């Protein structure tokens, strides 16, 4: 049954008033009911209007299959900004969309007050949808001017490197000062006292001192983990429109990082507030409230479906349980301070305690060669790190540009110590092929194998010692 828009609008306005009364502080939210197929496109592309690329079509097919099998259902997509934009599925029920409205207000409060979201807003402003649409328009113009093959090759490389940014750096950066630190060759040489005496003898000609020659400061001056920025600024032969594509992908990657890095906190916070807002919204009909709470139970249950044993974390369930526990034991003011200061790393490490982990049945598992699943560890530190491991470095290997040679060849270095091991050979080769295709000079990657022995990977060769 489709949601009647006027009724939902009335409920949404009254829930917003209740949220403000309860102390939520959020940017205005624009709600829009959309068809299911449009919602799927938003979920797959990540934005309502975004650059075209074949990989999004593949994701769309995967999402369609998952949805047809009952493994995936989209309730809403919300984009933080000023204003925030929220898309709801028009053929979801009125109770479901009422719950989603309250859920979105929790997201909007989190996005306005959390330090990571606030930092992006400060760097890039709060108009991601308009900016993404403008970038998509420029890329469409490039498709017309340069052809699909050339533009798609650049997008292939940029999207393959999409997570390789350095969130500790600013979005808008200046290129390196290549004169900074450049010194004359032989600088610091001072003649000995014995030599100085003979330079001053009568009749001796003072030898003219050779003009100093200057060496270029190394590029990069330190390992550069923001590969999208480095390639956009230092790839020897990239044209202007190609650099623009790399910078466009990088800016969108910055925008999505807080959503990725705060997923458990953010979904849990929104789930806590939608439950509380519905509970205190005495203007909602009783049958609608019961249906909405049933939808809430489906969202925050610990397992993916039925009684199936889940081997992955449901961020809604974990986040909701943690916020409930924090508010019960520490109070709402302390919870709001945690919401402001932390990301998922600090949230899990500092506030997932042993008692709560045991109550939620959290453990580290391992699979034997025959496929049998066994509990490997219940230690709280191991559980925390297992939850956080996929989030490290945006879920990508930590790889830095380490040296740009004078001939334009590039060396990359994998931080295997931080990643806890070497790279998958096939994946490394594929990414190197993309990098070399747009770098247009030799590219080499230094990493280690599974035994920890140094290995050197080139896109034109296999592993070599």
Automatic annotation (TrEMBL):
PANTHER family in the record: STAGE V SPORULATION PROTEIN R
Domain SpoVR protein-like N-terminal: 7-388
Protein name: SpoVR family protein
Database matches in InterPro entries: Spore_V_R, SpoVR_N
């Amino acid at each position: 049954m489709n949601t009647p828009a006027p009724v939902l609008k009335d409920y949404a306005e009254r829930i917003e008033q209740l949220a403000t009364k309860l102390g939520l502080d959020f940017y205005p939210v624009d709600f829009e009911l959309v068809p299911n197929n449009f919602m799927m496109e938003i979920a797959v592309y990540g934005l309502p209007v975004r650059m075209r690329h074949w990989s999004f079509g593949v994701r769309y097919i995967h999402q369609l299959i998952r949805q047809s099998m009952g493994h995936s259902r989209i309730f809403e997509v919300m984009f933080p900004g000023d204003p925030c934009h929220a898309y709801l599925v028009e053929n979801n029920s009125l109770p479901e969309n009422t719950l989603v409205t309250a859920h979105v207000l929790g997201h909007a409060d989190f996005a306005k007050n959390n330090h990571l979201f606030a930092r992006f807003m400060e760097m890039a402003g709060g108009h991601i949808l308009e900016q993404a649409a403008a970038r998509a328009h420029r890329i469409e113009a490039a498709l017309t001017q340069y052809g699909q093959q050339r533009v798609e090759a650049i997008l292939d490389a940029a999207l393959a490197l999409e997570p390789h940014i350095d969130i500790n750096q600013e979005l808008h950066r200046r290129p390196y000062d290549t004169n900074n630190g450049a010194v004359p060759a032989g600088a610091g040489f001072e003649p000995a006292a014995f030599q100085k005496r003979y330079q001053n003898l009568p009749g001796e000609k003072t030898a003219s001192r050779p003009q100093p020659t200057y060496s270029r400061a190394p590029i990069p001056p330190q390992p550069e983990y923001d590969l999208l920025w480095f390639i956009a600024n230092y790839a020897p032969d990239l044209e202007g429109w190609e650099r623009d594509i790399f910078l466009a992908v990088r800016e969108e990657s910055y925008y999505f990082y807080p959503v990725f890095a705060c997923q458990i906190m953010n979904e849990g916070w929104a789930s806590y507030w939608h439950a509380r807002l519905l509970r205190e919204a005495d203007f909602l009909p009783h049958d609608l409230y019961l249906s909405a709470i049933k939808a809430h139970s489906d969202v925050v249950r610990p397992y993916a479906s039925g009684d199936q044993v889940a081997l992955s974390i449901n961020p809604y369930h974990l986040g909701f349980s943690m916020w409930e526990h924090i508010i019960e034991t520490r109070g709402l003011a302390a919870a709001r301070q945690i919401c402001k200061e932390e990301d998922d790393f600090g949230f899990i490490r500092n506030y997932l305690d042993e008692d709560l982990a045991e109550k939620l049945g959290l453990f580290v598992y391992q699979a034997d060669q025959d496929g049998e699943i066994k509990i490997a560890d219940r230690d709280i530190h191991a559980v925390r790190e297992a939850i956080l491991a996929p989030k490290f470095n945006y879920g990508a290997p930590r790889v830095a540009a380490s040296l740009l040679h004078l001939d334009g060849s590039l060396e990359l270095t994998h931080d295997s110590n931080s990643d806890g091991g070497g790279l998958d050979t096939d994946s490394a080769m594929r990414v190197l092929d993309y990098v070399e295709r747009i770098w247009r000079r030799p590219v080499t990657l230094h990493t280690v194998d599974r035994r920890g022995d140094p290995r050197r990977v080139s896109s034109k060769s296999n592993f070599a010692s």
